[in-house]
Design brief:
Largest sheet: 5 strands, parallel
Strand order of the largest sheet: 2-1-3-4-5
CATH class of the largest domain: Alpha Beta
Number of domains: 2
CATH architecture of the largest domain: 3-Layer(aba) Sandwich
Number of helices: 8
Structural class: alpha/beta
Helix content: 25-40%
């Protein structure tokens, strides 16, 4: 079980390395972002512990680069920052977990073991379905070369659907995953936003990719002409 730790606080890195070594892990440590990208690319790891604030290349850029190289090793972000937007940005770029300093060593070990059990499924930064693409890092949506401007809720809905291509998802599933738990409206809001989204990603381009499956839910597929 080999771990890469990318951390510029050398005392912390050494303390964690020794602790993890005592737990039976093999730990490689580098102290800047450029070295982190190189190490992640050159050797296979079970988990990467990645600090956010790094010299030469910050943790966000390291994460974006290794995911862009199709390296799907589970990444646990370590950072002194605890803002919700920092956490959201990390997950959007393909992080698997997030731990704020100072942290419990026992919690760290538990998180590492959980990531190892989960494995390394693909988590591309750019989601693509036919000519439709969604960049989770920049939050840009395009149909071919044409940019599509979405509201925050339309974007969240599209991202949810693009992660389930070719699957019928119900109104209830969409409501549970795209709307806040405090939302008190009915399921009809899903139908309204499906209409908004369809008018932006399909209608202007003469395609029909977001369809209603009567009595079941909604289906997002690759490009089909509106006449099909």
């Amino acid at each position: 079980m080999r771990i890469l730790m990318v951390e510029d606080e050398k005392q912390l890195a050494d303390t964690v390395r020794r602790g993890l070594s005592n737990e039976g892990f093999v730990v490689d440590v580098v102290h800047d972002g450029v070295s982190g990208v190189w190490a992640a690319t050159e050797k296979p790891y079970d988990v990467i512990l990645l600090d956010l604030m790094l010299p030469l290349k910050n943790g966000y850029d390291v994460l974006k680069e290794i995911r862009g190289r199709r390296i799907w090793t589970p990444v646990l972000m370590l950072t002194a920052k605890d803002g919700e937007y920092d956490e959201t940005d990390a997950f959007d770029l393909g992080a698997d977990d997030y731990l704020t300093k100072p942290f419990s060593f026992l919690v760290l070990v538990a998180r590492i073991r959980a990531l190892m059990r989960r494995g390394a499924p693909e988590r591309p930064v750019v989601l693509e379905l036919g000519s439709l693409s969604l960049d989770t890092a920049s939050r840009q949506v395009q149909r071919g070369e044409a940019a599509i401007v979405l509201t925050a809720k339309e974007y969240a809905l599209l991202q949810y659907l693009m992660r389930r291509p070719g699957q019928v998802v119900s109104k209830g599933e969409i409501l549970d995953n795209v709307w806040d738990t405090a939302f008190e409206g009915g399921e009809n809001v899903v139908e309204v936003y499906i209409g908004y989204l369809r008018r932006k990603i399909d209608v202007p381009f003469g395609v029909q990719t977001l369809t209603t499956v009567r009595g079941m839910g909604y289906l997002l597929t690759a490009d089909r002409t509106a006449m099909e």
